[in-house]
Amino acid sequence: MQHDERYYGRFGGRYVPEVLRPAFEELEEAWAKARADPAYWSELERLGRGFIGRPTPLCFAERLTAELGAARQGGSGPRLYLKLEGLANTGAHKINNALGQAVLAKRMGKRRVIAETGAGQHGLATAAAAAKLGLECEVFMGEVDMARQHPNVFGMRMFGAKVTPVREGSRTLTDAVNAAMKNWTERVSDTHYVLGSALGAHPYPAIVRELQSVIGREIKAQVAEAEGRLPDRVYACVGGGSNSIGAFAPFLDEKVELVGAEAGGRGREAGMHAARMGGEGKVGIVQAYKSLFLQDGDGSLLPTHSVSAGLDYAGIGPQLAHLGETGRVRFDSVTDEEALAAVARTARAEGVLPALESAHALALAFRELGGAGAAALGPGSVVVVNVSGRGDKDLFITAPIFDRADWLGFLESEAARLRAEDAK
Ligand SMILES: *Cc1c(COP(=O)(O)O)cnc(C)c1O
User: Which of 65, 105, 186, 411 could share a disulfide with 192, CB 3.0–4.6 Å?
Assistant: First the structure.
């Protein structure tokens, strides 16, 4: 039986209150059994195909490849592919984890699942998975977030979930996590807590990584089919870290460059971004795990900002923190403005409307592949961007911005510039 790591270098661990220790031990044991049981994985494969819509397509980005190549000296560059996780049921990769944990909950004999949610995407995915499997579902959500993300609240209720407002603290994600933990302590006997990203106390980081690794396995097989080889580089955006570790994990032992894009928000000042790996994240133990967090001198979490709700978090999963520290995964950050430009550019060039989160990975790829820094990757090399979700959910945020004349002017001048490049 495969062994799950409890620590990743100096990060990870399980710092939980005494009352929750039995629940974590029960989960660890159930997960070890499920993980080693082919029946568990074939059930996920069946539901993946018939309910999620897997495998999601790997789309050759023909026009972006040409545009980026044209911007380089020599006139051609890497072949760019987009992994379209946004075509999964509920619009993002989150369903891979939610469904996997819901099936695990059923195996454990639980009849109820709970989840925390910030922007609502993880709540939506958990509610859909619970509906599919006939489990009761309660989602804890900060009152402020419920007001900001009303369409997702509505969606969760459509799937039959109870959405419980959290009125403590700042009434956002951190408080929702605390409320879910508290509820779990009271209902351990019949309830599984579906954690939404590759973080938290052991064994959650390992569970979520394994369930999301389907993304990387499919990328590997799909690139092999299209190109007969491995990709040279894979990009993914990093909030808590689930879509990135899922895309990266099957490549960790291969000669493939792995790049994480964090939210650079409005700038480098504290409170304006959520870039933990750029040197500003400090070691701490928060919400039951040890990792890098944006925090002040007293160890309190700093406020964060990103135009994309899914990347707007002060912590990062322990394995990614370790992979960043050892240099196996390279991190860089992308501003709100760059992400918005990448949404527009990808939509126009490829007919794919990416989520704002995913647009961070796209923007970093555009920055690195189209300019002078692209030299390292020659023509014929292969680059994949994991497009973790689709952008329909963001239209309330993006539409007012794109409606403004300055953005339309920007898009038109950008299109004219590219046409001029093409004509050269
Ligand atoms: C939630 C979300 C993310 C960020 O979460 P990770 O755990 O870092 O993957 C990224 N993209 C989309 C579309 C999301 O919904």
Answer: 105
